[in-house]
């Protein structure tokens, strides 16, 4: 794959690409889309309805790639999907071109990360030990860990973009492992707080990521999730092509229950500051194990996003 051929801004205005043309644009046309609609990653149901037919690639480019809503739990997810190697190649090499990084991440992006991390540490202080051990999954340039480190925390990051991980290690002197979160080798019960800020919407599959996070969390440890996709879509008027799934406060609660965390709260307050409007956050505490049947029972009691609610939310937010 030659990422130098990727030309994000050269397409004709308002170009609508079919899936094959989109794959050529991002330099990943060697991957065939997987057949059919995947089962819901959250509840396992096999019935999902397309609620939007296209995604936004850039200001000038839209692509035919549907977003579906699970009829059982309400999870929004991109379909069709590709094999994991597609996403591995995309995030190792291509994604940085999309977000405008060159050889190193944009200094303004790094500064924003540092500010968001400081705001997050202050907000979470009532739930945190004075100094603990932090793991940031999908840490980018690592900026969100800086304020934690400066307040005595031991910090480690996981980041698939090799250049961003290298920048975090050299420029910010952070311990960052360059790999995909699905295959990261993490020490057991080693972290008091795991942060996944906007990254769970990008990974190839959340289930192995959250299983590894559960094993790596110390007894009583915490998981902080941020969903950025719907907030970004509301700002841009369309769902972004990078978000493989989109979470709400409800689907975050269900996700935590399924994977062995007790949800403590969800909020749409800007707890990381004002630069990512519309983000939703959830904090959970590690349970001993995921209770069998708890997800189905919770959905049956009514904690779910219905298709009708989801359609109304997308319309209300102006997401076309
Ligand atoms: Zn579902």
Automatic annotation (TrEMBL):
Q: What SUPFAM superfamilies does the record point to?
A: S-adenosyl-L-methionine-dependent methyltransferases (SSF53335)
Task: Write down the top EC class of this protein.
Answer: transferase
Annotated transmembrane regions: none
InterPro entries xref list? SAM-dependent_MTases_sf
Q: Which domain of life is it from?
A: Bacteria
What EC identifiers does the entry list? 2.1.1.222, 2.1.1.64
A molecular function (GO) held by this record is: 3-demethylubiquinol 3-O-methyltransferase activity
Q: Name one GO biological process term.
A: methylation
Annotated keywords? Methyltransferase, Transferase
Its protein name is: Class I SAM-dependent methyltransferase
- This chain's source organism reads Sphingomonas hylomeconis
């Amino acid at each position: 794959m030659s990422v130098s051929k990727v030309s994000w801004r050269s397409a004709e205005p308002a170009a609508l690409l079919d899936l094959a043309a989109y794959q050529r644009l991002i330099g990943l046309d060697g991957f065939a889309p997987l057949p059919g609609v995947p089962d819901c990653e959250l509840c396992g149901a096999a019935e999902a309805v397309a609620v939007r037919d296209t995604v936004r690639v850039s200001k000038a480019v839209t692509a035919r790639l549907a977003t579906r809503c699970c009829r059982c739990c309400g999870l929004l997810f991109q379909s069709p999907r590709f094999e994991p190697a597609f996403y591995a190649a995309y995030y190792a090499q291509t994604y940085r071109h999309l977000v405008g990084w060159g050889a190193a991440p944009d200094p303004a992006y790094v500064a924003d990360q540092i500010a968001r991390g400081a705001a997050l540490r202050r907000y979470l202080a009532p739930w945190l030990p004075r100094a603990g051990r932090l793991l940031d999954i999908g840490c980018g340039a690592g900026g969100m860990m800086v304020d934690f480190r400066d307040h005595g925390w031991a910090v480690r990051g996981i980041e698939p973009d090799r250049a961003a991980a290298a920048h975090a290690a050299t420029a910010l002197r952070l311990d960052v492992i360059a790999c995909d979160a699905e295959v990261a080798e993490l020490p057991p019960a080693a972290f008091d707080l795991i942060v996944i800020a906007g990254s769970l919407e990008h990974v190839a599959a959340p289930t192995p990521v959250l299983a590894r996070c559960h094993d790596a969390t110390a007894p009583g440890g915490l998981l902080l999730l941020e969903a950025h996709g719907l907030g970004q879509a509301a700002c841009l008027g369309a769902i972004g092509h990078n978000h493989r799934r989109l979470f709400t406060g409800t689907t975050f609660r269900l996700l935590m229950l399924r994977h062995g965390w007790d949800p403590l709260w969800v909020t749409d307050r800007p707890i990381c500051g004002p630069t990512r409007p519309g983000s939703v956050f959830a904090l959970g505490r590690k349970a001993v194990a995921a209770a069998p049947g708890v997800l189905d029972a919770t959905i049956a009691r009514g904690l779910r996003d219905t298709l009708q609610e989801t359609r109304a939310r997308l319309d209300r937010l102006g997401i076309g």
